[in-house]
Amino acid sequence: MLPFLLYLSTMPHPRLSSSFLPQARTRPDALMLQIGTGAFLRGFVGDILAESNASSGTDLGIVAIASTRSRRVGWLQAQEGLYTVQVEGMRDGRPQRHFRINAVTQQAFAAGEDWAEVLALAQRPEVMGVVSNTTEVGIRYEAEDLFGRAPATYPGKLTALLYARFQALAGDPDKGWVILPCELLENNGDQLRACVQQHVLAHGLPLSFRRWLDHACIFANTLVDRIVTGTPAAEVLSATEASLGYSDSLLTVTEPYALWAIEGDDRLRARLPFAAHPSVVISPDIEPYRERKLRILNGSHTFMVGLGYLCGLDTVRDCTEDPAMGRFLTRLMEEEIVPSLPANVPGGLVFARDVMARFQNPFLAHRLLDISLQYTSKMRMRNATTFGRYAETFGSAPLAMSLGFAAFLAFVRPEVHSDGKWLGQRGDTPYELRDDQASAWAKRWQSFSDANPSPWVRAILADTSLWGRDLSTLPGLVEQVGADLSLILTQGARAALQARLG
Question: Which domain CATH number covers 480?
Answer without folding.
Answer: 1.10.1040.10
